Amino acid sequence: MSRRFVLPLARLAVLGLVGTGLAGCIGEDLRHGYQIDQAALATVKPGMSAEQVLTILGTPSTVSTVGNKSWYYISQNTRRTVLFLGEQIEDQKVTAVYFTPAFKVERVALYGLQDGKVFDFIERSTPTSGADRAFISQLFRGLTRYEPFGSGKGASVVPGARAGQ
After folding, report:
1. Residue 36, CA atoms < 13 Å, CB-side half-sphere
2. What pLDDT was estimated at residue 7?
3. Residue 36 contacts by C-beta under 8 Å, 6 or more apart in sequence?
């Protein structure tokens, strides 16, 4: 083969490899939680037992903490436009099954993104003490008070320091 054909083919191959690599970084649709089947949900009727609901819908995502009288099936659809960047919430659904005291279905309710506030289930920051004071005030407080064994309500070990300051 002549050099005239090899060089353009090599460039084309390199462009193809780079394009394939970049195509893997283009966005994706993500589905989180319990994706409910609408046909199965339509079969849940008032008066059904909790066991029947478990058979039809499966285990709920969470249950109410007071009285155990409500089951919640939670799902969320998000989109990431570029791989490794944050996600944007496109849709969020909560299917609530409310029970009577005898654990018979009272009603089924569907809540969407418009019905509530979106919040992050996983907080990516750890709360620390001292966040309510500025750095300079913390620094000067550390210079004027020495409290190795308490919160300052007892006697200070530093000579001349007043207790409780």
Report:
1. 29
2. 76
3. 57, 73, 75, 93, 95
In DSSP terms, 77 is beta-bridged to 31, 91
Query: 86 falls in which pLDDT band (50, 70, 90)?
Result: confident
β-partners of residue 76 are 32, 92
53's CB contacts (< 8 A; 6+ apart) are 44, 71, 97, 105
Compute the distance between CA of residue 47 and CA of residue 105 in angstroms, rounded to an integer.
Answer: 5
Taken as a whole, the chain contains a residue count of 165
Classify the C-alpha dihedral 118-121-124-128 as positive or negative: positive
Residue with tokens 């285990």: 59
Q: What percent of the chain has pLDDT over 70?
A: 62
Give the pLDDT confidence of 24-79 residue by residue, as tens digits. 567 777 787 888 888 888 999 999 999 999 999 988 888 888 776 899 998 888 88
> Which residues are 78's β-sheet partners?
30, 89
Q: What is the pTM of this model?
A: 0.53
According to DSSP, residue 103 is labeled S
What is the DSSP secondary-structure string of 3-66?
HHHHHHHHHHHHHHHHHHHHHTTEEEEEEEE----HHHHHT--TT-BHHHHHHHH-S-SEE-SS
The three-class DSSP label of residue 105 is: strand
